[in-house]
Amino acid sequence: MVDINDLELVVTAVKQSQKYGDTSEETIRSLAETALQQYKKPKQAIKAVRTQLHSIMAPYLGDPDYAAAAAQLDTAFASGDALQIKTICQGILHSHLSTRERQPILADFYTRIFAVTGRPHSILDIACGLNPLALPWMDLELPPAQAGVDFYAYDIHEPRIDFLNHFFRLQGLKPLARLQDVALQFPTEQADVALFLKEMPRFERNYHGRGRPLLEALNVHWLVISFPTVSTHGGRNLTGRYREFMFQLIEGHNWPVTELLFEGELVFCVEKVRG
């Protein structure tokens, strides 16, 4: 049984830290409960939570200055120039390693994916990072010509969620970015497509055994799951390893799979067949 006073002490200490204070309290509290079951002293638990958050949040992958990025978007959208908007989005995407690595293939990345899944009217972007900023390359229905896609985005970094909702409002879309730890609360929204891009390896490393239940719980027609084809350090080819891992995740399900291989990224479009 975890002492409630120790729990609040650990949560408060981590929440007040400069590095992890902007992380979802739900995530911090869950990690604190686990740490206090392993360590007798709150000081040890605080260190353990910070170590785990370093792995989950991956600050080494990069982040933009969100206030400055929001101001850049404001200027771009005020101009009404689609090319300027796209250029600013590209610059913001460049600030994070995952989306920076995807930039050379971005021109046809979603074109090929949606050729398989169909053009979605609703999307769940799981552990989204900055990926919603790729919206200008997705060729989806957007206001004012159309009502606009329902674009749900889930992340545990508070400034990122505020920024994404600001971006959605500028696009004329509903602000559906949500501060939600998908490992603790699986998304319940229904959509055409769920995107889970290059996050499954880290997700399974940090929340071992929850990847398969998450995929099973998502109320979507299509799962789009991707993996890096080379390691971040050393350039080791990971294609075979992650292909095997992907099919282990969905083993026993009669879900048709279409594989798309891009430079640097391996994508699986999985049709969730009911029954």
State the end-to-end distance: 41 Å
Q: Please summarize the sheet with the most strands.
A: 7 strands, mixed
Distinct helical segment count: 11
Q: In total, how many domains does the architecture comprise? A: 2
Tell me the total number of β-strands: 7
Keyphrases for this structure?
globular; 45% helix; Rossmann fold; alpha/beta; 275 residues; 11 helices
Task: Set down the secondary structure blueprint.
Elements: H1 4-15, H2 25-38, H3 42-57, H4 66-79, H5 82-93, H6 97-102, H7 106-117, E1 122-125, E2 150-155, H8 158-170, E3 177-179, E4 190-197, H9 200-206, H10 211-217, E5 219-228, H11 239-249, E6 257-262, E7 265-271
Parallel strand pairs: 1-2, 1-4, 2-3, 4-5
Antiparallel strand pairs: 5-7, 6-7
Helix pairs in contact: 1-2, 1-3, 2-3, 4-5, 4-8
Walkthrough of the structure:
- 45% of the residues lie in helices and 16% in strands.
- It has 275 residues and is of the alpha/beta class.
- It has two domains: 4-57, Helicase, Ruva Protein, domain 3, CATH 1.10.8; 97-271, Rossmann fold, CATH 3.40.50.150.
- The protein has a seven-stranded mixed beta sheet, sandwiched between helices.
- Strand 6 and strand 7 form a beta hairpin.
- The longest helix is centred in the N-terminal third of the chain and has 16 residues, at 42-57.
